[in-house]
Amino acid sequence: MRLTFRGAAGGVTGSCHELEAASRHVLVDCGMFQGSRRLAEDNAADFGFDPAAIELLLLTHAHLDHCGRIPLLVKRGFRGRIITTAATRDLAELVLQDAADLQAEDARHHNHDGNEAPLYDANDVAQAMRLVEGTARYDTPLELAPGLRATFRNAGHILGSASILIEAQEPSGLGRIVFSGDLGNRNKPLLNPPEPAPAADAVVMESTYGDRNHRSVADSVRQFQQVVAATLARGGNVVIPTFALERAQDLLYYLREMVEQKLMPASTGVYLDSPMAISATEIFRHHPESFNPETREQFAEGRDPFALPGLQMTRERQASVALNQVHGAVIMAGSGMAAGGRIRHHLIHNLPDANNLILFVGYAATGTAARQIIDGAREVRLLGETVPVRAQVCTIGGFSAHADRDELLQWAASAAGARIYLVHGEGAAARALAEAMIRRGQSATVAAADAFVNIAAANTAART
Predict the structure, then answer these.
(1) What tens digit of pLDDT does each residue of 38-68 get?
(2) What's the pTM value of the predicted model, to 2 decimals?
(3) Domains in the chain and their CATH numbers?
């Protein structure tokens, strides 16, 4: 087997791994680079391989940095099979349609000279989705071709997310390679924790939080309950910039628990003001097979874990504007970093009032409005306005969907003897995780972009 690291090597976006195994040409993920202008140029660049030569694409999960360039791959000639779980298929369609819409909007607003076209459009997304087979089930081997099979295993990251074990019959014997995908944080309310890594010759593993641990989920939930209840008691609004996949659904779960535990009045208005998050929540409801036993039991008993008495889903823009008049409410809207979307309007109307709370529950990149507010800015520019920051500001860092350092080490421990290649992490995080693994007696290397390794059964020889 020959493995080439085409993305997320030396960074946390653009996941894409090219594998030649059992005389087949396979990709694992084909994600979008996210962040700076240079990364936008990387998205439009050549893949480093001929898309038409790829026969199979295995998709670990539906986040844009793992699936976002699939329509471009199809646009440039890929006609093979795309295999993933049913939940990932449904979420990926939502994510890719949204990405195409945002690209079209950006082109209208910023591309006055016509020199820059979107990477792809809605038609490209539709063509790509026709190739997607949502047939993978956890722990059930799929025969991909003679001498080649894949087993999807629960990764506990978001709905439908998977690690993938690929087994290939080669002249040297049966080779086994595992792709971790993104691994989940344990003790989350909806999903099972990740299954441990299986025995393998090589493991391609994420390292996002390889140099630090999270605050516990239990402590984070307690703080969430306290700050929400205190804000509502003084008549203020709780405004939460919210990521549409996983985070919005977790928060609905916690808010429902607050009502049931009488920590929040049942009459409290809770507004999910994000068409994408609303659609994602509907997809979650259609895939109870992906949940942990407790959540599946709730669905089986007819109890919706996302439903609470005061919940209102606001798809229409007019309904979103009407939220300018509410008080003593919880408003969740995208984007999570306040870099776009409806949350900017809610911040304009809520930041100036000291009774309100702006609650951040996810990562905020440098330069975003969210990061400026978190860092203590006295005012912030939003939609051309200078807005004073008088509201309370709180950040809760324990809701991450990614495994932390100790959880990553625990996941990899069962792959003793495997050569581990670390991807999907900034340099410091990946190096720290590699050093920790080496101290534990494992073989770990930080992968380099476009480097390749040759993998043989029970023997891994590397060349870069």
Answers:
(1) 567 889 999 999 999 999 999 999 999 999 9
(2) 0.92
(3) 2-213+401-463 (3.60.15.10), 217-395 (3.40.50.10890)
